[in-house]
Request: fold
Amino acid sequence: MAPAGKISGFHREGNDWFSDASLPSDITLVVDDTNFHLHKFPLISRCGKIANIVEESQSTSDHTFEVLEEFPGGADTFFMIVEFCYGGRVEFTPRNIVMLYCAADYLDMTDYYDDDNLLPKAESFFHRHILRHWKDCILALQSCEPVIPRADKLQIISRCLNALSVMVCTDPSLFGWPMMMYGTMQSPGGSILWNGINTGVRIYSTKSDWWFEDISCLCVELFERLIRTMEEKGIRPENLVSAIMYYCKKYLPGLDRWHGGQSGISRKVGSFSLRPVTIDRSVLLRAVVKLLPEKKGKSFCRFLLGLLRVALILGVNHTCQDALEKRIGTQLELVTIDSLLIPSYSDSDTLYNTDCVERMVHHFVRSEPSLTSISPSSFVLETSPSSGRLKRVGRLVDNYIAEVASDVNLKPGKVRSLAEVLPESSRSLHDGLYRALDIYFKKLSIDACAHASQNERLPLRVILQVLFFEQMQLRTAIAGWLNVLHRESAPAASSTAPTEMATQIVQRDGWVTVVRDNQVLKVDMARMRSRVGELEQEFSKIKEGMKNVTKSHSHLSSKGVGPTRDLSSPHSDLSSPPFVAKGVGPARLARRRKNIVYSD
Reply:
């Protein structure tokens, strides 16, 4: 049934809309706190839902009042429908078609009430115009975000996704996309024209990323569903991965910098402008981790590390972090040292997130069960396909330890766990590990040095290195003392300056505990200079002698050197015969030790 006549218009007063008709309103409908004072007959002649509302309310009152909850499109869309019901004309566009389509379904505006009703009109426009053009389909799909459940019920989203997936597989010129490669010398179907004659030669663009920017304007849920639909339609996985990377770099700040690449050029065509979309970064990360296929490559691995950094910054759930760490760990041989230096974004005292790196190395070891069975000296290590990967990861871990070793808050236990996380077969030589430990020992305190010198599990070479640095620290401190005393010229000041300087050294270095009396320092000053030099010479000779410790017992016996003694033992005595270097007798060494005062 058609409305009795067309009403000229409406006017608004605050949050209330009124028709310009002379007849009083007999129905009030509320949409998003906006009151529409209307007439029953024009509405019930087209809207089945309103007809049912009026029928139910006639027994109680002549004036009907109803709140339309969760109306698709809000008050603006409802006003367009009101104009249509009063005889007005609705203009469909790619931006409003989905809302009008869903609103017509909400109000049950089917052809049962009118042959030319809004729902069949919207359905016809959607099929004839939206699904046949790329940009219109993108705009319509983007507008589905606020009404996803109802749009799914009407199969609007699924039809848009299928249409877009087919268009990606097809020549863009076939669905209205302008191709400017040959200017006007191109037929509508994409063939090259010669003097206006179709040559039949097709034009194929070498770029497959023309659609990345357009689909990046979709919300996370619709983007994820589009990628899955494209995967089902047979789009190449590498193109899908590139589209996902483009989407992530657009909405995750800093990811493009960590990835080391540059964003693709956005495609701008005529009036095709998409409104910006608001993205929840945590939701995006969780969706991307599920979307990404199993792929390996340096660029892809660097992208995964960038995602992991963002996940650590945002504090997303551990399931997402673990999935990223596992993916990176399975291709850890492709990682570079700079991308592995992940800062500690939590309350940890350490500068870098070493726990995260250790977990990734564990994932690498688990991904290759055969690695633990390879001997470092076996022929299998050289011929196994996994040996190259294992060695690269071994060098990477050693370099990583060397980079983080300068962190003063890095605990010895963490250094050890990082060094032992790989099997023994990962290092045919230990040069990288030695360099890492060398850097770490330079920042040890006196307590750590004392512990290391007595640690039976450390090799003698490492213990000598610790003792060497300890002596260098002693020499530096004494030299600083002497320089301060030389600069003191005033007698009054000389009585207090050494004591104050000694206190400062105690506080700064943490291992000088003896504060000498001023008179004792003056007497021993000259003697100390010569003794420090003798200490250095003696230590150099000890180092030369210790090189023979690693030789076999029989070889040592042939040289006339006694059995070695464990330096880690608290009762070890460097003056005993087995440790006396060539040219340094026990008596001479004892005299020197008697005249030297060691720190506690």
In short: The radius of gyration is 40 Å. The longest helix spans residues 518-546. The chain has a mean pLDDT of 75. The longest strand covers residues 197-202.
